[in-house]
Amino acid sequence: MFSITRVNARVLGGAAVAALVLGTGVGAQAAGHRKPVKKVRTTTVAYQGGCGFDVAVGGTGGSGTPGVCPVGATYTVTRKSTEKFLTIIVADQTGRPVSGSLWLKGGAGTAVAEPFCGSLKNYRMGQDTYTLDLNAAADSTCPGAPTTGKLTIKYSNLP
Predict the structure, then answer these.
(1) Which one, of 97, 103, 120, lies nearest residue 55 by Cα?
(2) pLDDT tens digits for range 46-97
């Protein structure tokens, strides 16, 4: 038969206490503090010409009619449930920034847009779907009009 000496009993007791501490509080707490990982989904579209018109009337916001496209195309921006932020980058062949509108609310004469010049970074999306237009004419705050280029849309869970 075995006899446990006082030294062995202390070692076994200490190991048991350590296992309890790590198994309940300290270990579980350490495992729950992970830094969130940024996930980005990217869509790239080639464009030719613009759509809509200038809605930049100083500051954010503006009004007009989304999706009136005599020349270019209107783009639908749809997020997935885990995506919270939107980045839009317009790369025109001229190298100049291009004016655009992210439509927040539709309606003839009552529509509301978030205007941008060249890009819109980490826009917090409050709805599932938006309409996006590249403005056919340059405005005073954004020197370029769309000719031919690339429209990059990035959706992410973190800014």
Answers:
(1) 103
(2) 988 887 554 444 334 444 556 556 555 788 999 999 999 999 999 999 999 9
Residues 6+ apart with CB under 8 A from 47: 72, 73, 134, 146, 148, 149, 150, 151
Please count the other Cβ atoms lying within 10 Å of the Cβ belonging to residue 53.
17
Residue 120 in tokens: 């819109």
φ and ψ of 83, to 5 deg: -90, 130
Q: How far apart are CA 114 and CA 131, in angstroms?
A: 11
Question: Could you tell me how many helices (H) and strands (E) the chain has, helices first?
Answer: 2, 9
The whole-model pTM stands at: 0.69
Give residue 85's identity as a one-letter amino acid code. Answer: F
Query: What are the helix (H) ranges across the chain?
Result: 6-24, 26-31
What tokens were used for 115? 């205007």
Give the whole-angstrom CA distance, residue 55 versus residue 114. 9
What single-letter DSSP state applies at residue 142? B
